[in-house]
Amino acid sequence: xxxxxxxxxxxxxxxxxxxxxxxxxxxxxxxxxxxxxxxxxxxxxxxxxxxxxxxxxxxxxxxxxxxxxxxxxxxxxxxxxxxxxxxxxxxxxxxxxxxxxxxxxxxxxxxxxxxxxxxxxxxxxxxxxxxxxxxxxxxxxxxxxxxxxxxxxxxxxxxxxxxxxxxxxxxxxxxxxxxxxxxxxxxxxxxxxxxxxxxxxxxxxxxxxxxxxx
Length: 214
Fold this sequence. Notes:
By secondary structure, this protein is an alpha+beta fold.
């Protein structure tokens, strides 16, 4: 774990300690603005970004971690949502926007963050809004893990057109079409029949030489 880029050395030390003070920080990247909230109180600076405390109003579903390579989504719920975030939920194109959940370790009795680790990165797929007369407005954000992409078919092919769509100006696949039906000579000896040294020697079949690419 110490070699992962999203886990710093201080977080590794904190994980080994018996007592820890932890907050969870959620970042929702809408097109207009990025919402940053955490499960504690007050303002916190986490990895150079400011997060607003939501306290017990923020709840997070279980995060499944298994030895299998599979996609498991996470649901975030926030009660008592303010008008600003509620407006984003109603008007923004939120689907496939990034949601990141971090675990932050605080120095005992302070609001100073001494270590962080990213525990989940996914994409927003659905936002549900509920208005209860007793508890007020609440918003639920459903996300899917990035591993879901492994189950989606890719429309890209190993062709010049696909390669240029992904990387404009790349010429690495320009000759793919030409070599599909080409006969390549590799370690093959050509000789005539079985009649001995005076038997005529057959010529190798013609082949095409691909010029060096610029």
